[in-house]
Amino acid sequence: MFKRLKEKWKISSDSQLAVIFIVFAITGSTSAKLAVPVLELLHIYPTNFESIKLGDLIYTLIRILIIFPLYQVLLIIVGTIFFQFKFFWEFEKKILKRLGFNFLFKEKD
């Protein structure tokens, strides 16, 4: 399994793979932890949705919408701290292109 990942991601060493996994773990945990303070900064609290039908679901969806861009930015920052900027920049471009943001990364002719 790890061999296929290394081939897919075009990395050569097990240590680089380990660092990449560590970056993903740190970024995921950090973005999930930071989502609540960001929501509080925007004055969005779970109690705001108590009177609304499916209020918990709405709050969760808003939290996910906050986490996603936060995660993308943190992935580049944490990846850079671990000297893996190139890998994570290419990873980000691939994800954003799949989500329809191709216009951000126009190839130069």
Summed over residues and divided by their number, the pLDDT gives a mean of: 90
Our count of helices gives: 4
Helix fraction by DSSP (H/I, runs of at least 4) = over 70%
List how many beta strands DSSP finds.
0
- What does the radius of gyration come to? 17 Å
N-to-C terminal Cα separation, in Å? 37 Å
Q: Could you name the ranges where pLDDT drops below 50 across 5 or more consecutive residues?
A: none
Determine the strand fraction and express it as a percent band: under 5%
Largest sheet: none
Q: What sort of overall outline do the alpha carbons produce when their principal axes are compared?
A: elongated
Short description:
The chain has 109 residues and is an all-alpha fold. The chain contains four helices and no strands.
Describe this structure in words.
The chain is mainly α and 109 residues long. It has one domain (12-98). The protein is 71% helix and 0% strand. It contains four helices and no strands. The chain has helices at 2-9, 14-41, 55-81, 85-98. It is elongated. The mean pLDDT is 90.
Per-chain topology:
Layout: H1 2-9, H2 14-41, H3 55-81, H4 85-98
Helix pairs in contact: 2-3, 3-4
State the main characteristics.
single chain; 109 residues; mainly alpha; 4 helices; elongated
